[in-house]
Each structure stands twice: as C-alpha cells, then as structure tokens.
Specification:
Layout (H helix, E strand, L loop, with lengths): L1 E8 L8 E8 L2 E6 L4 E5 L2 H21 L12 H33 L5
Antiparallel strand pairs: 1-2, 2-3, 3-4
C-alpha cells in the first residue's frame, strides 16, 4: 500500500468534513472514507473519487432509510488514520513553506486569527 494523498470531502457546509485516504495498491487507486470504513477504487484518482461518491451516497441513503444514524460512524483502522495524519502533516508543511515568505510580514504586523 503506497500512500498518495490525504484529503477532505464535504457533504454539506453545516457538517464536518469526511477524511479520505488515497493509496495505490496493485496498480489501482484505492480511496477510503476513514469516518465510515467505506472504500472504493478506480484507475485514476478522479475515477476513485467518483466511485467513492456513489458508495457514500448509497451508504447515507441506507442510513437515512433505516433510521440508523447511531450506527453511521464506523472509524477505519488506526493504521489508515496514522497514514492520513502523516500525509496531512506533510501537505501542510509544504504549503506553509511555500507561502511563508509571502505572509511573514503579515504575521509580524497583524498577529494571529483563531477560527
């Protein structure tokens, strides 16, 4: 399993994001929704995302139709969450380093903003 990317998927602006882990396994792109333990795949990242979208919609329809919100969350394996976190940290580090020179003056004059 070769890690490719950690990303977030949004169902709605009012809900927290879902955590997606993309890996390459045996020449196929695998995407996992770590919040619900759902996985899908495709030959490309875009195909895997589209396949995951269909799987998530089916899963959420099932949850709604069966009034089983209490069973909605089914977190994936710790090793997948750990891989996601490592990828996310690397991505954030790269973004920070790429933009730091542009914003260092703002940081010194404006301070920080909390969300």
């Amino acid at each position: 399993m070769k890690p490719i990317k950690a990303e977030k998927c949004y169902i709605s602006d009012e809900l927290p994001p879902l955590h997606m882990l993309l890996t390459e396994e045996d020449g196929v792109i695998v995407i996992r929704c770590l919040d619900f333990s759902i996985s899908s795949h495709g030959d490309t990242i875009e195909e895997a995302r589209q396949s995951m979208s269909s799987a998530l919609i089916d899963y959420l329809k099932y949850v709604i139709e069966n009034n089983s919100l209490k069973n909605l969350f089914d977190p994936d394996l710790k090793e997948h969450w750990d891989m996601y976190q490592r990828l996310e940290i690397e991505t954030e580090k790269d973004i920070f380093q790429a933009h730091f020179d542009k914003i260092k003056g703002e940081i010194l004059t404006k301070g920080l903003t909390y969300a």
